[in-house]
Amino acid sequence: MKHAPPNDNVPRCGWVKGGNALYYDYHDNEWGVPVHDDQRHFEFLILEGMQAGLSWATVLNKRENYRRAFANFIPQQVALFSDKKIASLLQNAGLIRNRLKIHAAVNNARCFLNIIEEFDSFDAYVWRFVGGKPIQNHWQCLTDVPAISRESKALSADLKKRGFKFVGDTIIYAHMQGVGMVNDHEVRCFRHQQCAVMA
């Protein structure tokens, strides 16, 4: 089913233009909002990995399918996925059927649980990389927004060291944007100031 974008003149970030209603809803209500729930962190981490080489719109359109297929992104359940379960996921037309990405998601669930065991929560672990509060950027337009940062490089390197897959610098920077570790809304966007006060 096609989702029509909102018919308004609200100023938004350049990247959201031309998207469907799911895209606008994600931008207006989720992107850049600080996340402190481990299950939500895990969802974003897996979805960002699935997006690699594809558009975020593609992932958003399949998000509900992923929630059903990946036990609503409960890492403790995903970590127990068997080879038989993985094989069934690779036959699921509602998913991005990439063998490496699906295997990585299960691997990452196990690594995610190791971090929780060490730090009590993934949230406590990940927010250390930005000093415990969102980085507030003030970009004027879409072309100003970087694809990576010093912090995303450091987090990516640490995740790789801990055994995570599909966690390159760019994927991790997108994750940091999504979970509000960095506020990359353009200053003209109506969400810039709204997200800034959430810090």
Q: Overview of this structure, please?
A:
The mean pLDDT is 94. The longest helix is centred in the middle third of the chain and has 21 residues, at 99-119. The chain has helices at 21-29, 38-51, 56-61, 63-69, 75-78, 83-89, 99-119, 122-126, 150-161, 169-178, 190-196, and strands at residues 135-136, 182-183. α2 packs antiparallel against α7, α2 crosses α10 (169-178) and α9 crosses α10. The chain has one domain: Endonuclease III, domain 1 (Orthogonal Bundle). The protein is mainly α and 199 residues long. The chain has 11 helices and 2 strands. The radius of gyration is 17 Å and the shape is globular.
Main features:
Endonuclease III, domain 1, 2 strands, mainly alpha, 199 residues, 11 helices
